[in-house]
Amino acid sequence: MSASAPAVQQVGVVASLAETDLRAIARRLWWPIGVGLGVLAVVGIAVAAAGSSTTQDDYRADAASLILLGGLVIALGLGASAFYRAVGGGRLALLASAGPSRAHVAYGLLVSRVIALAITLGVWLVALEVGSLAIGEGLDGPLAVHVGAMFVSLSIALLAAGAAATSVGPYAAAIFGVIVYVLAQAAVNLNAAANDEALGTAGGLGRILYWIFPRTVTSPMIADLQARDVAGPAAPVIDINQNVITVPASGLGTLIWTLAWCVLLVLLAGLGLRRRPL
């Protein structure tokens, strides 16, 4: 047997667990209902934008709000509930006795949740692109890039809630996911403020937090909308000490940093589930 065989086997175990859990998620009404409500919201967004004098800006701003607010609700729900049934219903003990380690169980369940989030945003993106065609704006490439950036950002909230869910209940885990997401956004905003020299002597602290905390990924589309103050709730203008802060689009470094944090949170979830009493 080759040295890579155990690693391949472990990946297979995680993939099998993820597939089983994804099917279970699809059978729970709240997730498909949430996805469907998002599609209905897109219809309303398209109708509202079609009657506006600034159709594209309004459509993109409302779409960004849907992806942020609706996506955050879905992400937190998926992450916070990742281990609730497994631990509370005794399924964790059954899975562990069947062979997979607790860490592999954690990885499999979180992978399935990330896939469910990807499916959610994918369905909404298809609906948004159809809506963009319907209002005469054509396929919207920048909006697609924004949805991809938000998938990475929302994964941070999902995985943070999932990591917390190995130790606390779902509601506390969801609150923790919100806190981590807010800190990730704050890290990006404070670094932008420090670069604009709006923080004074506190600029160094802003940069330190930027290199410690996870970061949200800012797409070129949302950076442009925010700079022109037309992004709406998804990216309001930041005013610090009467200085309007410009948050630039994220580069490759931020994307890699955030993905690294995602991996770290998955590993922490594995550690937390290993220490969880059955």
List the helices and strands and how they pair.
Layout: H1 5-27, H2 30-50, H3 55-80, H4 84-88, H5 91-97, H6 102-134, H7 141-165, H8 170-195, H9 203-210, H10 220-227, E1 238-240, E2 243-245, H11 252-274
Antiparallel strand pairs: 1-2
Helix pairs in contact: 1-6, 2-3, 2-6, 3-6, 3-7, 3-8, 6-7, 6-11, 7-8, 7-11, 8-9
Write a structural description:
With 278 residues, this protein is mostly helical. The chain has 11 helices and 2 strands; from the N terminus they run H-H-H-H-H-H-H-H-H-H-E-E-H. Strands 1-2 form a two-stranded antiparallel ribbon. Strand 1 and strand 2 form a beta hairpin. The longest helix has 33 residues, at 102-134. It is globular. The two termini are 34 Å apart. The mean pLDDT is 87.
